[in-house]
Amino acid sequence: MTTNYAGLQSVIWREDRLDLLDQRLLPEEIVYLPLLTAEDVWEAIRHLKVRGAPAIGISAAYGVVLGSRNEQSLDTWLAEAIKQAEYLATSRPTAVNLFWALDRMKAAAADFAANGLSLEESKAALLSEAFAIQSEDEETNRMIGEHALSLFKDDMGVLTHCNAGGLATAKYGTALAPFYLALERGITLRVFADETRPVLQGARLTAFELQQAGVDVTLICDNMAGMIMAKGWVDAVIVGTDRVAANGDVANKIGTYSVAVLAKAHGIPFYVASPLSTIDLNTPTGSEIPIEERSAEEITEGFGKRTAPQGIKVYNPAFDVTPNEYVTAIITEKGIVEAPYDVNLRKLFES
Ligand code: MRU
Keyword Isomerase: yes or no (predicted)? Predict the structure, then answer.
């Protein structure tokens, strides 16, 4: 399948450095940050310069390359690659793609070192592994887009939350991939983008990338979703995810759970777009998913303007968990999975 998708690429390897699109500055400024060390990558992930589960994993994979490239012997190179992977794993806790990509890089490094590759060959092969993680994500997202589009019909209204688009992945996005395919095939979908408090990934990123592409997108505040559902404007919801537990509970950006409950109350299907790299069979249920808490300032003085009293108590979880009973289907690169999730998600990894 070819597509006309021409969105901004958030992660670019350039010969001897990693360029990351600084997503904190969007939509006003398009700035690529040149990163040279694993510490630079850790800091970029922690501070949301790069964000979105797959993009975090891809960036961290390149971070392992950067962090181990100065070693002068095969033994110290392998030890350093593993050490840097473990360090990068401390950057954010919720998106399992981070740990998935880092485990893959550690296993690849150990494999190259054990199989007689020289130091320089091992370094080159590790970079190729990071490239593979990035290019496989692109292909995965195209497949997710194809499967998701089969659920949508011309003129449907579809609501999304946060940003699970090209900016959050290697290309196309997960939840946003069907919108790009629809556009190319002349299928009109009316997309509603929740602004997504407190960091506004919906307003700054989803609205931006869909508008750039020419998708019919309308921005709403998070607290308007129920009202437009009641009006009959929303035929389906589709969101991305940071981690799907073995029982089909889904962690995603804070506010996703409220959208799922509203969708159920209005009889609207609630779809989750998830690559297999986001499904974590080692986490039995959503209650075991670590939920990141972020700084109070994101709520009290987001974007430089104080909007709450000094000294106010704040609770700022970055993600919530939607229980599986609210999830109509999980759309993966291998197809559409419905309940019972504990059985059907496992099957995806068997074939
Ligand atoms: O805090 P963020 O911006 O990294 O949160 C991102 C999300 O919640 C996305 O929906 C999720 O990572 C899926 S991206 C394909």
Answer: yes
